[in-house]
Amino acid sequence: MTQSLVLHTPLPKNLGAGLTVMNDRIGPMNHTWLMGDLSYTLNLNKDKTTKLSFGLKGGVNILNANLQDLNMTTANDPNAINYSGKVMGNVGAGFFFQTKQFFFGGSIPMILKPTLDPTVPFYDRTRHFYATTGGYFEVNRMLKLRPTAMLKITPNAPFALDGSLAFIFYDKFWVAGTYRLMESAGAYVQYQITEQFKVGYGFDLSVNGLRTHNRGTHEVMLSFDLISTYTGNKRLLSPRFF
User: Is residue 217 within 8 Å of 233, Cβ to Cβ?
Assistant: First the structure.
C-alpha cells in the first residue's frame, strides 16, 4: 500500500519548488520518503510555449523493517535483522523539454546507492533511469487524444516499458487505457470538476504469472490548483494535458 502527497509551486526568476512525502509498505518493510525539489526553466521562444527545465531533488528515506517476523527457511539467518527508523539520504536529477503539444524528459530519482550495514547486503538500492515522452492531438472540438510512454532501465534487471492512451472529452472527462510490457494492463478515469479541482481513479491487473497471486492495484487521486501569488499570475492554465 502506498500513500503520496505532492506539492509544487512556481517561484520568481523561472524557479520552481516542490515537496514530496510518500509512504510505501510491502510485506515487512515500510519506507517513508521526505524529498524537496528545485527546478529552473529556460524559455526557448518569445511566447514561452517551448521550454527546457532542469530539476534537482534531495531528502531522506526512513526505513522500518521487521524481518524477524518472517517465516524463515534457514534458522538464524543473518539477514533477518529488524530496522527501526533508519535514515538514509539521497539526491536525484532530471530534465523536461516541452512544446505546446509535445514533451520529453529523463531522470534519475535516486542517484546514491545506500547500504544500511556492510555486513547485511539485503538492502542495496539500485539506480533507476527513466525516460518519458508524449503529447496530445486534437481530433475535433469534442475529443483530444493524449498518448504517453515511459521507459525504465535498471541495471541487472529487464527494462520496463509503460504506455497509455487517454481520450479527453470536452477538456474535462478523461478515459484511458494503460499497458506495461509483459507485466500489467489497466485503465483510469479522471474528471476536471472545476478549473482548480480534479479527481481520478485507476486500476491495473497483472498479465504475467503474478495474476494468480494478487487482485491488481487500485489508485485514487485528488488534485487542487491554487493561483500563484509569486509570479503575479491571476489565472490558471486549465485544463493541463501534461
Answer: no
What is the pTM (predicted TM-score) of this model?
A: 0.81
Cis link prior to 239 (omega < 30° from 0)?
yes
How far apart (Å, rounded) are the C-alpha atoms in residues 95 and 90? Answer: 18
Closest CA to 162 of 191, 190, 188, 130: 130
- Between 160 and 229, whose confidence is greater? 160
User: Which residue(s) pair with 66 in the sheet?
Assistant: 82
Asked whether the beta carbons of 202 and 188 are under 8 A apart, the reply is yes
Q: How far apart are CA 59 and CA 189, in angstroms?
A: 32
Pairwise CA distance, residues 70 & 150, whole Å: 35
- Determine the pLDDT at residue 238: 60
Q: What is the rounded CA–CA span in Å between residue 112 and residue 66?
A: 24
Task: Round to whole Å and give the CA distance between 7 and 3.
Answer: 14
Q: Where are the domains of the chain?
A: 1-67+82-126, 128-227+235-242
